[in-house]
Amino acid sequence: MAQINVKVNGRAVSRQVEDRTLLVEFLRETLGLTGTHVGCDTGQCGACVVHLDGRAVKSCTMMAAQASGAEITTIEGLAKGDELHPMQVAFHQHHALQCGFCTPGMIMTAVDLLKRIPHPDEATIRANLDGNLCRCTGYHNIVKAIAAAAQSGASA
Amino acid sequence: MAHEGIGARVPRKEDRRFITGQGNYTDDIPVKNAAYAEFVRSPHAHARIVRVDTSAALAAPGVIGVLTGAELADDKVGGLICGWMIHSKDGSPMKAAPYAALARDVVRYVGNAVAVVVAETKNQARDAAELVQVEYEGLPAVVDPAKAQAPGAPQVHAEAPGNTIYQWALGDKGAVDRAFTGAAHVVDLDLINNRLVPNAIEPRAATAIYDRAEGRFTLYTTSQNPHVARLVLSAFIGIAPEHKLRVIAPDVGGGFGSKIFIYPEETVCLWAARRLGVSVRWAADRRESFLTDAHGRDHVTRAEMAFDAGHKIVGLRVKTIANLGAYMSTFSSSVPTYLYATLLSGQYDISAIYAEVDAVYTNTTPVDAYRGAGRPEATYVVERLMDIAAGRLGVDAAEIRRKNFIRSFPHQTPVIMNYDTGDYEASLDAALGAARYAEFPVRRREASTRGKLRGIGLACYIEACGIAPSQAVGSLGAGVGLWESAEVRVNPVGTIEVLTGSHSHGQGHETTFAQLVAERFGVPIDQVSIVHGDTDKVQFGMGTYGSRSGAVGMSAINKALERVAAKAKRIAAHLMEAAESDVELKGGEFVVVGTDKKIAFGNVALAAYTAHNLPPGTEPGLKEGAFYDPQNFTFPAGTYVCEVEVDPKTGEVDIVQFTAADDFGTIINPMIVEGQVHGGLAQGIGQALLEGCRYDTDSGQLVTATFMDYAMPRASDLVSFDVSTTVTPCKTNPLGIKGCGEAGAIGSPAAVINAIANALGVERIDMPASAQRVWEAARAHRAPVAAE
Lengths: 156, 788
Hints:
heterodimer; A: 156 residues; DNA polymerase, domain 1; 2 domains; 6 helices; B: 788 residues; Aldehyde Oxidoreductase, domain 3; Aldehyde Oxidoreductase, domain 4; 20 helices
């Protein structure tokens, strides 16, 4: 068994889990944070993206034990109470989601993107979304939402 | 109040839970003391099962049970069904072979489930599944539909000699033969419509709960049509009678057709839950999705089109072999027949059409409806032929289409369909204008200075949506009616719940359906809740597929709203002591015309429930239901223009511009409709450029079984699309809606391939037009030039 001590969405948690537990399993099954999704379990689709010490990671390709000691933000921890993160607002206003399944990973990736590149052009946005699959939107409105969020200073 | 009714670009009500991680997908739903199922699947495409030894697995830690096809048969669990009877042209019924949820004697495709392990944790189930020893005796396999009927080909089922399920035909062969005899020009084409994997990002999942005291099951499942799932699980598979089986399809992460069908896994989870006395959870991993979600397309086609001297189409002849895989999935038989050949007239006035379709079994995953289902295949045949004809006859690709458009409605095609309305020239002109078609030669010349081959391609698609008039589909072999139901419940405070048999898995029904209520009753959409996806809440429904939720589902809601309005008006007239004929419902209030008397909708609702002062003979309450059965299919149509640049050195294709002009009839929410088009286009462009399901022809292994091997369109593969609409309201439903869910996937493959063929100056290039294929085509075509 592995001892996992992490801070998730600002709350310190300590749990004992099987050594082979993936970070995404720890979040979903152990902590009940089911907003982080599993779309492919092979690191291709990005539905499981969370922030680990401020960087976007795919939680399906990381052991929970590797994350011990880190600060993790999941989609559930992005808004400040009832106040949505500007990226969440942009996704809503620009219809950047349909079935919603890829959306948590997509938003966490987009937030990370603007942190690294505050004013990306369309080609840069598209290139930086290559680790995230969406089957519903054709990416058109996702790209638009991220560009709009960048305009409104969401990287701050 | 801001306008939120029909035509308003309202952001979606359902978004909040998805953008904050509060979505409620099947595998997110906690179930007390649930066990986990892991399926043991065939690694062979075709093999006899000699022996299944479960002893080591049963002894593994945490294992609750290991069940095989033998126990399934002992418990008399029924097989999976195909719900659409097709008759061959000789009158014989299709040769559907049994389809057991767990194979007992023979496995017929890689991924065919053989056993299930149920254990306390997911990892224990996975570990134990590896301990199930299955001894197989390998058999030769066939995966290519073009080879399935050859003499000596491996036989998939004894019930279907020559692997032939049916040999079906539609149209007047004699008339077509005569048209070809007298034709001035004939163009022909051999094509393959490539096999696709739907790949909804949420993998299929099922959670089965059995209440022993009540003898009642609950199934959470990733379904586009929970009531149809319940019907099949009850009436055919025999899990439980309908009143003892509740099926809930909560938030569902994309479907695209693949979640219409009733699969082995939910059957097995339900059965195992009762047999083992535990709740059973299962969620596919992506490899299982690739192996077991019903695939799409997979046609091999030869098509010929005849023209008179004035370039009018006089005849169309099509022969298709359709691969249905190893077993017949729920609606598989209808896809390459009534959803395909009936659309071969396209947007054109063609007097003679004849199509023959052979459906074959192969040792591959079952094939069924995938976004568009038959209609993309029809459009691809017709629109590839139109471009080839334009090239051979030396005329402009837009003009040959324009010359052949249907211009008067209603129009009866020679292949069953009766188009109610349309204006094909309007969408063609809108698309050509937006794409700056006339200036294309300038752009081509400029591209050539950069060493790029620039090409432009059109596709004028039509589809049949609003599926479907029950009597008509019944006469064609459908096992169900395809109406829709709705119930409108007005609460005493005037808020409204709409129960619908449609199911939203990305389409935004919680918003658009509420917009219809806002339009009719003048209430804010925040006061309207849409209830769907639960057989305990909604009495019955046929679900969502075939772009039917607007045209059929909302028509049912509209009918129920009319009934509610009629009763509320009667009560309002009574309360205001006015004649009912003088009362109108306007902006959320009942008014007596020509006076200042009025009463708010909410107050009428309250009066209906207090029942202190109702018109004589009026029952209390304000709740009405309706069933709506469409009179006809609807016929969305439009023109897509794709412009590409090909690098002849590498074969790389860049889509530089994609323009869509669609006629969907009445639009409830333009933002949502545009989103549907964007997504459809991405899937169609994916089919044309990237996606191709490959089986190894010797071993029958699925070679493209991960996202590393199967090229899904990513953001950098696509461009921002230019989409617009023209409108001719549908004449056969009360709202004028035609449907928008599939158009993008239907029209775009032909537009992309026409553009690449145009760039290269070749007639044929197969999908997916990978860099290698394009490079080879460019090289073959340019070789003589290079040699000069």
